[in-house]
Every structure is written in structure tokens, then in C-alpha cells.
Amino acid sequence: MRIKVLGPMEVSRDEHLITPTATKHRQLLALLALNAGQVVSVRTLFEELWGSEPPNTADQTLRTYILHLRRRIGRQAKEVLVTRHGGYQLDLAAGDLDTQVYERLATEGRLANDQGRTEAASRLLRSALEVWRGPALVDVHVGLPMSVHVNRLDESKLGVLEAWIDTDLRLGRHQLLLSELAELTARFPMHERLCGQYMIAQYRSGRQWRALEIFRTLRHNLVAELGVEPSAGMQHLQRAILNADPRLNDPITVVASAW
User: Fold this and answer.
1) Domain range for residue 210?
2) Are 195 and 234 spatial neighbours (Cβ–Cβ below 8 Å)?
3) How many CB atoms lie within 10 A of CB 166?
4) Is residue 65 part of a domain?
5) Residue 147 forms part of a structural domain
6) Residues 5-27: what's their mean pLDDT?
7) What GO molecular function annotations does the UniProt record carry, in alphabetical order (predicted)?
8) Is the terminal CB of the chain with fewer CB neighbours within 10 Å at N or C?
9) 34 and 43 in contact (C-beta within 8 Å)?
10) 16-17 and 39-41: which strand pairing?
11) pLDDT by residue (tens digit) across 72-117?
């Protein structure tokens, strides 16, 4: 059985879609999938499905939901969705959950980056990002327990994006990054590292004025929203751009030391 959660939820077996349609069934299976190979306690499942006030019939209702999921899974369902002491466990083969594929590629990409294999790092990190088909579990109701996993995945994706952009800046692909960085800085207008990467990409594309404009916008947002100035690293980068510091065109120096 294969499960995808990095985007709309999708469950398949033997190339046939078996994605649950009922809201609670989807929510239950998603939480179990995000904890694949681990026991999820009944208490946690109650909290996910009903918050802090589960109904008096919660035990029986949960067992009914599990029964429905097993029927949908089909053969050997009890070996896939296993009853454990105090909870339930979803057992999947390696690579049958898209988060596992994503995390493996991201780890391999970071390792390649650490080893100085920049081309390989760029390819692996980009492949990790391509596993995502949209916001995680965009069509599933997310309770408190599952929100912890979703937030972790969102933060992880942002970190992989930053690392991939760094590698492509090292490879001289600054012009190819402009549209991606324009979208990212619009979504995260106070994210200093993304703004710094955008500034570098614009400067290397011959748009010094645009790089300085990005800094002014960042500073305005930080002062207006948080009452703080950009970090010392960002101010250093701004001065380097103002002075046309030749080190700005040295990919390794800029990416490693600008922040």
C-alpha cells in the first residue's frame, strides 16, 4: 500500500486508488501514516479526531473507523493496520510513504552538499522538493496531534528550499532562480535568508538597484511588523552590494559567509 500526504491525500494498492472519502477516516489514516511503524495511542487518536472532548462512544466509534479502513485496505489488512496494546500501528514497506522518499532525498542532498558534490546536491534536493504536490494534507482536516507533523514537514521543506537555492547560486544559476525567489519572498516577506538569496541573485543578474530595493522592503516589513532592524549579516550584505564588493561574485564566499 502506498500513501501520499505531501499534497492531497492519496492512497493506492496494486495501482488502484483506495483513498478514504469519509472525513474522519482520512484524518485517522493520515495520522497513522505520519507515525508509520510506531504505535499511536488511543488517547492521541481521540485527541486528533475529537479534540479535548471525545464523545462517550469514542471507543466504539474508533473501532468502527479502524474496521472501515481495514476493509478498504483489503487483503492482509490486519498485518498492515495492526492492533497494539493501547493503540494502533500502520506498517508500511520502505518507500511506500512519500514523506520517507522526500526525507531520504533531502538527507542525501545535504550529505552531497557537505561533501562538496554541488551538482549532485542540487539534483537530489530538487528531487526532494518535487515529491511535494502541494501543501501537506491540504484536503484533510488536521487536529492538534497531526498539526505537529505538518508544521515539521513545512519547516523541513523550507530548509530544503534554502539549501537547494544555495547550491544553485554556487552553480551560477542565479537568473534561473529569480522567479522562484520572487514567489518565496512574497510568501515569506520577513524571511532574511530568502531575501538575502534574492538580493544576491538580482545583483549577479546585473540588477544592483533591485537587490537594494529588496533590502529596503525587508527592512520596512521588519520595522513595521516587529520593531526590529535587519540582522547584522543582512546589513553587511547590503553594504557589500552598495560598494559592488567583488566577493559578491564568488559563490562560495557569499553563500558561506553573507549571513
Assistant:
1) 173-259
2) yes
3) 22
4) yes
5) no
6) 95
7) DNA binding
8) C
9) no
10) unpaired
11) 999 889 999 999 999 999 999 999 999 999 999 999 999 999 999 9
Residue 43 C-alpha cell reads as 488517547
pLDDT tens sequence across 105-117:
999 999 999 999 9
The amino acid that residue 206 corresponds to is G
Closest C-alpha to 144, from 12, 31, 18: 31
Q: Is residue 216 part of a domain?
A: yes
Helices (H) and strands (E) in the chain, counts: 12, 6
- In the structure grid, which three cell numbers stand for residue 103, read together? 526525507
Compute the distance between CA of residue 21 and CA of residue 123 in angstroms, rounded to an integer: 36
The CA-CA-CA angle for residues 221, 223, 225, to 5°, reads 60
Domain count within the chain? 2
10 Å Cβ neighbour count for 201?
25
pLDDT for the residue numbered 258? 52
Range 175-190 burial, b when 16+ CB lie within 10 A, else e: eebbebbeebbeeeeb
Work out the burial of residue 58: count CB atoms within 10 Å of its CB; fewer than 13 is exposed, 13-18 middle, 19 or more buried. middle
Residue 54 identity: P
Joined together, the cell numbers standing for residue 161 give 528550499
Question: Which of 57, 90, 123 represents a domain boundary (last residue)?
Answer: 90
The residue out of 90, 108, 132 marking a domain boundary is 90
For residue 256, report the phi and psi dihedrals to the nearest 5 degrees: -80, -30
